[in-house]
Amino acid sequence: MNRPLATYIALLLLVYIWLSWGSDDGPRHSPDERAAYERQWWASFRSLDYAANSTYTQLPPSVRSAVDGLMHAQPAPSVRSSDGDPLAGFFYGTWNAEHFGASDTLLPFADEQDGLARPANGSAGRLTLELASADSSVAGTRLLHGNARLLARGFSASLGLRGIYWGASNTAVLYGVHQMHAEAFIGLVRAVPRNESFAQAKRAYAKLLDGRLSAYDMPADVVRGCEYQMYVRFSSAELALPAEGASGLRRPSGLLAQTVMYSPECRVAVASPLGRPLSGISAARYQERAGHYLRLVFVAMVAEILLLIGQMRHTQTHAAMNKISPYGLAMQTVLGCYIFIAHVSGSMTPTVDMQLAFTGATFVAFTLLVMFALHYMMSVWRVQQPSEPDEQVSGQRQLWMTYLRFYGALAVGVVVIHMYTETMHPLAGLMMALLLVASYSYWVPQIWRNAQRGTSRGLRKDYLFGTTLLNLIFPLYVFACPESLSFNTPSMFVWALVVYSMAQVAVLLLQDLLGPRFFVPASMLPEVYNYHPLLPPDSDEEAAAEGNADGSADSARDAESRGSEDSTNSDEPRNSRGRECAICIQNVDVSASVASALFGRPSYMVTPCHHVYHTECLTRWMEMKLECPVCRAPLPPV
Fold first, then answer.
1. Which one is predicted more confidently, 18 or 409?
2. What are the RING-type domain coordinates in residue numbering (predicted)?
3. Helix 352-383 with 326-344: angle, nearest 10 deg
């Protein structure tokens, strides 16, 4: 990589880091202002009264009826867990939205601001809920915290959650905000149903926040949008389905959560469909799955790096590198970057902590793989560049265009992955399918290069099979595994992608067996240069190369006259049909050219620049350099 390009990439990385850090432009408050706010907050919190301040009693009738069905139903057995935290886990499912009047949000433009606004009336989407609990000072309760992520077509929102759980009824009340602030705890207490539960929540959070309120921002310091009261009823998945038997249903292990959310400011209800609760998995089991997957990714990346190193050793000579397509290597590098982006984008893990773990674990593996692949690609590219100065300038332009395509492909991939994981855009699924097909076409440039140049056997078999199978691990896990970390529904499309990848491998193997052009009409591709032309009687290398390079008849006659003059002036008798090989300085016998061509490999080779060499000499030379030993003209590969 040249210095200007390295400087440009380093500058882009610095800009990205600077933008990632961002800046804190929020309002600043003096210690006196903060102390005054905390005194006012505690006065408001202590004066909370169920009869005067409850927002539960102000719910729309249909929403309150649904909440009553959750909170006051027959108690389900308490959820149990072996890790000490019965509610630590991840829940995922669907939701539907319903409006109950005009929005009274705090932001006048919130209806136009994605995530801060309410979802469209009648919209449906995906909900991911992460919860953890802690001990409470009030018996029979636990304090909850976590995050919720709502995703629908044209809508995406992330909420920080605080709440309280009652073990006797197996229910919980939470309050969700886009950015956590001190007023959220007042909103939580006001959302609790029933006077007794209201008092319990008030005592529990009064104890928790005593001396800790300063850790939370003032409402004026955060951007506020729709804030949600969330009502949840938990149950064990084993209780929701019958046991195995005549019905054939399997009893899954895990958790279930039926949810109802309502925003008083935005007047919108978001609820999981009746009879279709959120499916959950305990945090311990989820982390166990994540650990297994990270180990799998690391082993796969190490194996792919070892295969790549073996392929690099297999193609150390110039002739071998000329058989490799640098565009195929570039596409493999882009695919590795796509997989890394998918791991760190949040599509694989619903939590910030897990995203950090995935980022750190996958960064090292994918960075090493991309570095080796880029190094190999640049080595192949340099070998295949022409030696003429004018053509070198054109090669530099081609390199810059390759870099532009590389980073352009990365930008397109980032946009498509974001659309697929963050927006539920109607075209996101189609665009993701096209991106996968394009990304897994990395053997197509190699197939085309083999056919165009008439070469084959450039790839080791273990590298060909191993790279293909290892690159299929990620899509198979995400789109075919029913218990993947991404919670995706299995899709049959991934099996079509597997067939497509293996078809490319089959074509490369057939090119090795049947010839690189077995499937392409010869008229569609340029001719491959023939280093073993049949030399007619009384001809020499100039006349022999005439058939390959379309030399003129005058050149042949000039060569004959020069040969006659040399033989006349020579004191030694001239070897019949002999020419001197510039590599071994021995005569080349071309007298038996017809018989050699019919019954074996000819002992001579004629270059496009009309020079004759021994076959073994020139073959060994071309393994090191693809240029004529005499005139340095570029030579096509054998």
1. 409
2. 581-632
3. 170
Hey, which residues does 281 pair with through a beta bridge?
A: 90
* Residues 104-161: tens digit of each pLDDT: 544 443 443 445 678 888 888 888 888 888 999 999 899 999 999 888 887 888 899 9
| Phi, psi of 421, deg, nearest 5 | -95, -20
DSSP state of 638: -
User: Which of the two residues, 568 and 596, has the higher pLDDT score?
Assistant: 596
User: To 5 degrees, how large is the angle CA 467–CA 471–CA 472?
Assistant: 120
Burial of 34 (0-12, 13-18, 19+ CB in 10 A): middle
Q: Is 47 left (phi over 0), alpha (psi -120 to 50) or beta?
A: alpha
The helices-and-strands tally (H runs, E runs) of the chain is: 21, 13
**Would you say 202 and 182 are in contact if contact means Cβ atoms under 8 Å apart?**
no
Which amino acid is it at 518?
A: F
Give pTM, 2 decimals.
0.71
Residue type, 396: Q
pLDDT greater than 60 at residue 266? yes
Please say whether the beta carbons of 380 and 3 come within 8 A: no
Neighbouring residues of 406: CB distance < 8 A, sequence distance ≥ 6: 330, 333, 334
- The token duo for 310 is 């073996």
Residue 146, token pair as written in the block: 């976590």
- CA 592 to the chain's CA centroid: 59
Strands (E), 75-140: 89-99, 124-135
What CA dihedral angle connects 336, 339, 341 and 345, to 10 degrees?
A: -170
